[in-house]
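Allow me, if you will, to draw on your knowledge of protein folds for a short while. The matter concerns a single protein, recorded as an amino acid sequence and a row of backbone structure tokens. Kindly check, if you would, that the fold set down in the tokens agrees with what the sequence suggests. You will find the record immediately after this paragraph.
***
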Amino acid sequence: DEILAALQSTESNYVIQSQTLPYSITWRRKTGLTQAEEDDWTEEPNVLVPVLLPDFIAMIHNGKQARVESPTETLQSFVAEITEKIPGKTLSLAVTELEKHFSSQKPKSQKKLQQPEQSSSKAQEEGKPRKRKEKAIPVSQLSRLDVEEALVELQLHTGVQVQVLASWKEFGEFASMFTKAVAEAPFKKEKTKTSFSFCLEGDWCRGVKVDRTGKGLLQVWKRQIQQFNRVSLEMANAIVARYPSPLLLMQAY
């Protein structure tokens, strides 16, 4: 309900239907400009998949215990399975209410923490060799560090990021912002294209001559600034007037 309410607030059109990935959110863009092309839609490459908290924690736990137990589904294998089903798509994952997992953890008592130390010291006194046995970590004891390490490894190996959200209401707001970003992407891409109109100017093509006294260096510096994206002639003039050399600009920042 929170997701639909957030989408309705942005006046977005949505359809609930079965998809290749259950519970996933995909986008389509209307490309038809006439009534005859009313049903002409283009699929966007973005796919947002919410992951339920128990499944998310279980997959991280399985990844931590991969060397101890038999292989099971992990975050990386989960992503690999999804990308096989939707080749060519840009995948994003989201998990909600992660704090519920950490808040449910009960701190161990000091007495329980001291028991292994006492038993190990007793074994040393008796001259018995200690055997370090690797034990499986309970799912309920996964720490924040375990989760962060799993997310970093996932991004390094697959390039997929996981958005951690506090509630399903926040997920709805995130889905709404995602929808807006997908809708505006082509227009922003078109807007940021550089026309390079300055290349047609004769003065630019002729270049700048610099003599032994340094005359002309200011003009060279201004043209170097103009090579940056979205830097107009007026902006370059203002920068050069304030910082007549690259060194002065570097010292200021």
